[in-house]
Amino acid sequence: GHQPQYNARSGPTARNEGVLRIVPIAQLNPYQNRWTIKARITSKSEIRHWQNARGEGKVFNFDCIDEHKGEIRATGFNQAADKFHPMVQVGSVYTISKGNLKPARKQYNPLNCDYEISLEPNSVIEECLDDPSSKSIPSQLYKFRKIADVQSMEPGAMVDILGVLQSVSELVSLTRRDGSDTNKRSISLADNSGCSIEATLWGALGSNEGVQLEQAMLSPDPVFVACKALRITDFGGRSLGTISSSCFTINADVPEMEALRRWQAEGGCSSLTALSTGGGGGGGRSDQRCTLGMLKEDVRQQVSSGSPVYLNVCGSITYIRHENGVMYPACPNKVGERNCAKKMREEDRGNERSWFCERCNFDSPTCDWRYMLSITAADFSGHSWLTVFSEAGEQIFGMTALALHDLQESDPPAYDRAIQEANFKPFVFRLKVAEETYNDETRIKSTVSKADPINYAAESKLLLGFLRKLKNDEPVFTCGAA
Ligand SMILES: [Zn+2]
């Protein structure tokens, strides 16, 4: 009739519909010259600059899906990047035409599509405003896998995860191999497979999405996150990392959510198997805490199985044993790549001071002063003896062992004051707890690898997380990953 024809020519989108035949993404192939797809943008990268022997340029890409759940990536170089990057917005629906179809570069492109669109400056991208048919296009396509399945999947594979957010770490800045700066932030997720895993958010994802997740964690309600396109790594057991097109959606509207909510409400997170071991001995996850009281029983049991346990405790120094000094004269000789560091013997050469290392058979007028001392530290749950070496000693006394040694020789009262000032100071201690056998007697030795001053903002966030765990009947303190 006449009425539908009139409507077909009224709005901008309707006009497009009339002129262009919309092709399902799944039917695109390089032998088609004229095609138009209608799709919602699910992710958009930043513009990246590159430089190599053939020249330099810039590139960006976006991923999109259509109403038939077909997905495809579009890439724009140089002029096309300048033109289209500011135009396309994640979540909006566009018609796209006049791009070149090329085989998908599967090493970079996790989408389930054999082709990708190479955008030219004369490609056409038009937003579909007020188009009711856009509602039938989903906002994201997920193929969720259970966290437990990640254990047996290949490193490098891509995965979508729907999980309960367990923790969000501080943003950490680091330097890339090429000298440029970036940052990262790690989060921990659990799901109804009964497992938890860590995911690292790199670059802008760590600073932008990471802040949103961090703020969501401040609410007392559980935070459910749908993660799209995370790469599996075998770093520290199994863990996940973002790529430029990774997406995080809080409380996503997906059918799998109901089962996860029910599992969480029934206390599912109270007993989890961790797939990530926090970097294999790096020193315990900074967002997991143990107590000094737990060193006596829980940690002892875990250590007796053989391998050392790394964990963090927050406590105050209550005693510094210093009758025999807090440092020793270490051998400065290089043995392989490391310093020998064995204790040197002071030789009596009349007026001259001389040091001798039996291991190296090495005679030297100087030695390398290093911290080695025992302290006790206490928290609300108990106290424990801890052994302190070099770096942690510098953190505790606020000066090098050489500086403190010079003070001891030149100004003994100032040396005593330096010891007293360190007493009763609070720290977050990073501990390595291991079994040690000495004279046929096996005991547990706790060594301080770091003594960080307390960052009160970070500590407050951690305590809020503990309150949430208490409310959900989840354990607050753990012995750390095995
Ligand atoms: Zn030596």
From TrEMBL:
Oligomeric state and interaction partners are given as: Heterotrimer of RPA1, RPA2 and RPA3 (canonical replication protein A complex).
GO cellular component terms?
A: nucleus
Query: Which interval of the chain is the signal sequence?
Result: none
Describe the function of this protein. Component of the replication protein A complex (RPA) required for DNA recombination, repair and replication. The activity of RPA is mediated by single-stranded DNA binding and protein interactions. Probably involved in repair of double-strand DNA breaks (DSBs) induced by genotoxic stresses.
Every Replication factor A C-terminal domain range? 310-463
Per UniProt, which keywords does this protein have? DNA recombination, DNA replication, DNA-binding, Metal-binding, Nucleus, Zinc, Zinc-finger
Q: Which InterPro entries match?
A: Euk_RPA1_DBD_C, NA-bd_OB-fold, NA-bd_OB_tRNA, Rep_factor-A_C, REPA_OB_2, Rfa1
The OB domain extends over: 35-117
Residue ranges of every copy of the Replication protein A OB domain listed in the record:
147-251
**Protein name per the record:** Replication protein A subunit
GO terms (BP aspect): DNA recombination; DNA repair; DNA replication
As for family, the record states:
Belongs to the replication factor A protein 1 family.
The record's GO molecular-function terms, alphabetically, read: DNA binding; zinc ion binding
User: Which PANTHER family does this UniProt record tie to the protein?
Assistant: OS03G0429900 PROTEIN
Which species expresses this protein natively?
A: Pyramimonas obovata
Principal location listed in the UniProt entry: nucleus
**Subcellular localization, per the record?**
Nucleus
**Do the record's keywords include DNA-binding?**
yes
Lineage: superkingdom: Eukaryota
Pfam families assigned: Rep_fac-A_C, REPA_OB_2, tRNA_anti-codon
